[in-house]
Amino acid sequence: MKLSRRALLAIVLAIPVAGTILRPARANEPAIYAPGGIAISGYDPVAYFTVHEPVRGTPDHSLWWRGAMWYFVNGENLQRFEMNPSAYAPQYGGYCAYALSKGTILSSAPEAFTIHNGALYLKHSTAIRTIWRQDMDGNIDKANANWPIVLRR
């Protein structure tokens, strides 16, 4: 059987999505995705908005918020976050926004981000981010309907 490049690409992109869709949500997940207690794997949430890319923060500029430690590149970014955390924190506690749109939860990768209408959305991978971008508004509506209910399933 010979597959076209397009068919092969569709299969490769579908593999992580299938895992997302088929994975049941775990009960009583924390509201913030923070492995080891560190939100966004130690990346600065403000930097996504100021330099438009993920930038690793440092423990020297950190803040405890909603049960997780948040790292920042500098004191200025820490202060911006502290003054208005909801403007900079990723939506859905930093869990994969696409998985939320499917009614489940999945970890996120700092490099798989999108800023849409002034909000930060993280995804599990850049491949899933590609799928997410095909219908961002629809995916956001679905994820909003599932959040935070999916944490308690």
Overview of the structural elements:
The strands form 2 sheets. A two-stranded antiparallel ribbon has the order 1-2. Strands 3-4 form a two-stranded antiparallel sheet. With 153 residues, the chain is of the alpha+beta class. Residues 15-27 have low confidence and may be disordered. The protein is built from 7 helices and 4 strands; from the N terminus they run H-H-E-E-H-H-H-E-E-H-H. It has helices at 5-22, 47-50, 75-83, 85-88, 97-101, 126-132, 136-146; strands at 58-65, 68-72, 109-116, 119-123. Strand 1 and strand 2 form a beta hairpin.
Strand content bin:
15-25%
Low-confidence stretches: 15-27
Give helix % range: 25-40%
The whole-angstrom Rg is 16 Å
Number of helices: 7
Terminal CA distance: 42 Å
Structural class: alpha+beta
Main pleated sheet = 2 strands, antiparallel
Major beta sheet, strand line-up: 1-2
Could you give the order of the helices and strands?
A: HHEEHHHEEHH
Please provide the count of β strands: 4
The overall pLDDT, averaged over residues, is: 88
How do the helices and strands line up, and which of them pair or pack?
Blueprint: H1 5-22, H2 47-50, E1 58-65, E2 68-72, H3 75-83, H4 85-88, H5 97-101, E3 109-116, E4 119-123, H6 126-132, H7 136-146
Antiparallel strand pairs: 1-2, 3-4
Task: Briefly summarize what is shown.
With 153 residues, the protein is an alpha+beta fold. It contains 7 helices and 4 strands. The strands form 2 sheets. A two-stranded antiparallel ribbon has the order 1-2.
